[in-house]
Task: inverse folding
């Protein structure tokens, strides 16, 4: 399992053995975001300093794979192909796990108001993958997880959701539905859902600003989640010049890029 540690105002990656007590910090991973494992568990890829990098969990300094100004997730198959989102807006790209020039795979569909393809995850065959096609203009009804392929530009809608999804053996799709993490039977050959979803947890941390729920599954046997439903909400608060709180504004929610009006009243 990968964990973050906040030190000196930046992130550092740590590995933590599930069910154990051993932890290990990884050198050179300051400022890392959105890490993901290699299939053999020997490397971790991550985004930092505008680059996609990988680091050997046994030691050593990270290797730069390619540019990624504002990465939003990646996935790595057994053939050494990494599919990732290099920027907050745009499509998916692929690159060799040895590094190189990225090749564009997908483009957001403007007719569906898509602005970003992100949080890709390979299915067991290593050829097909799931990813979130999202917009951040408030039209959440258009957000959905799609099925894509390394061998084709065709894609198909799997389920409507505003967050990442994952596949779990022996055949389930794990995704967010109405702010609840659910699992639903998923045919790994036909790539279709069936039956009804059942609840796994309604306490999973969800960051709507990036469209990501914090959870991970492993071989259908282990589910790890970060709890904290609503923990990412903010309350706008007025302060006087002495730093004393002088009242609140509105209700708790997801706020960013706050600015005062010129007259200082709004």
Result:
């Amino acid at each position: 399992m990968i964990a973050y540690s906040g030190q000196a105002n930046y992130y550092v990656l740590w590995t933590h053995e599930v069910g154990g007590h051993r932890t290990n910090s990884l050198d050179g991973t300051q400022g890392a975001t959105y890490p993901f494992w290699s299939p053999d568990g020997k490397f971790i890829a991550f985004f930092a300093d505008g680059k996609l990098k990988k680091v050997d969990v046994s030691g050593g300094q990270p290797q730069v794979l390619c540019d990624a100004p504002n990465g939003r997730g990646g996935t790595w198959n057994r053939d050494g192909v990494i599919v990732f989102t290099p920027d907050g807006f745009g499509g998916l790209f692929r690159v060799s796990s040895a590094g190189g020039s990225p090749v564009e795979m997908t483009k957001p569909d403007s007719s569906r108001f898509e602005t970003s393809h992100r949080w890709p995850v390979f299915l067991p065959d290593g050829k097909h993958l799931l990813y979130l096609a999202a917009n951040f203009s408030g039209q959440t009804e258009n957000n959905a997880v799609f099925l894509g392929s390394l061998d084709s530009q065709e894609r198909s809608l799997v389920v409507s959701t505003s967050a990442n999804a994952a596949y779990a053996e022996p055949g389930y799709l794990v995704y967010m539905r109405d702010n609840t993490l659910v699992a639903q039977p998923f045919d790994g050959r036909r790539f279709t859902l069936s039956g009804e979803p059942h609840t796994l947890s309604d306490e999973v941390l969800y960051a709507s600003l990036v469209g990501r729920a914090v959870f991970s599954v492993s071989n259908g046997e282990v589910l790890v989640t970060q709890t904290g439903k609503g923990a990412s909400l903010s309350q706008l608060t007025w302060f006087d010049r002495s730093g004393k709180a002088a009242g609140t504004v509105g209700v708790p929610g997801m706020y960013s890029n706050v600015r005062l009006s010129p007259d200082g009243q709004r």
Observations:
- Residues 2-160 form a domain with the Neuraminidase fold (CATH 2.120.10.30).
- The longest strand covers residues 245-253.
